[in-house]
Structures
1.
Amino acid sequence: MGDSKVECNSWVSIADTQASKTASPVPVNGKQLMDVKLGELPSWILMRNFTLKGIAGAFQRGHCGYYKYELDHERFHQYH
């Protein structure tokens, strides 16, 4: 009977150590979407800036990033 308590406690300690290994040192609001774990996704979404200025900034970053990507590939293919 004493052995079953030891086994139960050892399972709890294993689960605790695995949870502490998966804990992220970076706060959720400082992560990019690809770095967010599935369980952190709802809190990550709620920390986004949903004001008009925030949404416009997100579109501007996406637009500028896309054209920077296109220009880099155009320059690469021009010389290769």
2.
Amino acid sequence: MAVVEALDVIELDQKAHLIRELDGHVMKCVRDQNGNHVIQKCIESVPAEKINFIFSAFCGEVATLSMHPYGCRVIQRVLEHCAYELQCEFIVDEILESVFILAQDQYGNYVTQDDLIWYKVRWFDI
């Protein structure tokens, strides 16, 4: 958890340098009991333009991640913290493509419930 704690206290340029080391290892981290916390902290505390490689790693994997015990938490953080609508568009599209399966999954249902509703309220003023 030292990386998560470091992301709380270091400057933005140091954060950006540190998280670049994750490039190519994002999916492994997301599926890891401790690594998923690092990815979540990156999403929460680093501007989107510095972590595009994280979002790119999720392309084509959103439904699978949503049904994973740690991956679902990461996808939830993305929906909560995306900086602008286009950044999350492919993620929402992939969720909607599998919404019936996700809604019945023990982890996927969390993504389809509160977080999609929160996303819609945030971006569409419903």
3.
Amino acid sequence: MWRIRHGIHPAREEEMSARPRTAVADLAGAELDYWVARARGTPAEHLYIEIVPRTDIRICVDVSGAIPARFDPSTSWAVGGPLLDTEIAAEFKALSDAEWQCEDVMTAATGRGPTHLIAAMRAYVASVYGATIEATP
């Protein structure tokens, strides 16, 4: 997987410029999980967002394996914790009782959120794609 210390990889910049954009800082829930999977290299055609039956809950589903599986690194330490160990050099700072900041010290990308995981996953997506990404399909 490629990483550019400052900015977006030149090949990705042209591809991403013509589509509607969303701020990484605004990503949450299934959309954040979708972009974490994309940042890890999972192709878009292996991911989809669905609504759990009889609820309003949206989840990211990864169908790249033999069995489709929920992918929720922004809310599950079982999924997000290993990403912190392998994909991001995280440094956390409490901004208030209800907000955390995470900085990837290798890329200087930052993310904020109400939990450690949300802040870290936003920082990870920002470290790969920059401050904005294309709108989630």
